[in-house]
Amino acid sequence: MDVYSTLTRSKEDFVTINKNRVNLFVCGPTVYDDAHIGHGRTYISFDTIKRYLEYSGYAVFYIQNITDIDDKIINRSKESGIPAHELARKFERRYIEDNGVNLFARATDHVDEILDQIQRLIDKGFAYETEDGVYFEIEKFPEFGKLSNRNIEELESHRDLADTTKKNPQDFALWKKREGVDEPTWPSPWGDGRPGWHIEDTAITEYYFGPQYDAHGGGLDLIFPHHEAEITQMEAVSGKAPMVKFWLHTGFLNVNGEKMSKSLNNFITIRELLKDYAPETFRFFVLSTHYRSPIDFSKDSLHQSEKSLDRIRKYYELLDIEVGDESYESDVLAPHKKEFFDSMDDDFNTPKAIAAIFGLINDTKNELDSLSDDDKKAIKSFLDDAAHIFGVSFELEDVNAGSDDLLDLISEVRSELRANKQYDLSDKIRDSLQSLGYEIND
What we know:
Elements: E1 2-5, E2 10-13, E3 21-26, H1 37-55, E4 59-66, H2 71-80, H3 84-97, E5 103-106, H4 111-123, E6 127-129, E7 133-136, E8 172-177, E9 193-195, H5 199-209, E10 213-219, H6 223-238, E11 244-250, E12 253-255, E13 258-259, H7 270-273, H8 279-287, E14 295-297, H9 299-319, H10 334-345, H11 350-364, H12 373-390, H13 403-419, H14 423-435
């Protein structure tokens, strides 16, 4: 299995620290609002990666952090009048309902670990206290920037940049002393306050994984400064490198060719999307693009994914055979199955894996009746495995009771229209049905 790492900018053989075990950490949300479809894209991608690693024989321990104390949460709390901890718990619950992870680790449940890591950074000379907080002195870590290939000066984009009390304007916060009476705080050796953004992740991963682990994921927008700061903190405090061997980053999600933002009125939450579309449709849409590539969301592209998934389901139903737990072999299936798993082994290339499924359908759909039962069982068993890896079902759902009767009625209406030479209207009905995934041949 070859996996691309942002750290080396190359694909590498996926060799883990402990044989057949993978420790995977993915940056979770700051819980001040509902997760949007950009979050959904990232978390679907990593859920699929986890599923495939497990299918391939690895035991995967998958952790996401929950940032439940942050400037955004405090500001939203002041706007809404809802206490910060209540606001965070509300959106945390809603987020967890939309995802499946082994462990969600709250920042506020690991304050002791955060304080311990900060103290060790101070003791080793990498961090210092000022009147408003504790900061990491990045000039003490010469390798800062190795993940993003950026210079120290570019840290000016950092959201903690502000105070003149720092030794260097680019030093980033590890601990923020109390700023307002209404803000949540925790006691520390440096005064009451709260953690900086970056330190929670390394404190959490060190607690569960140790100073080095296999894979870290997140969106491209987190490479700098967040993931860069994580490397800096962890490798400085532990003296071990690399902190993580495989850095995996998902591409950006745009909406109709534009960056998603509330100001453009194209900001879509996962919950809003699921009012109109099935969760599996969105999953299949996400997996139709490689996880590292940008993806453009539109209703047309989502509808196309819906049709593609429906096409696989109709083929799956035509197999009409029961399978057991045993293994099945088929010369008909073999090249398509090999293409599927070769694609997944090549940096989790889900679009190529999906293409392998459609190659199988194109090559066998018209000859299903002539295939042996063993061939059909092998194909169905393979599709069951693919569905599990993708996190979808290929079972054809009976969406509407009596839908066959409705289609018969529509067919009769079309026949009457054609008999009366009303071809335009007849063709419009045919085209509309085809757009819903039904084939009509006159």
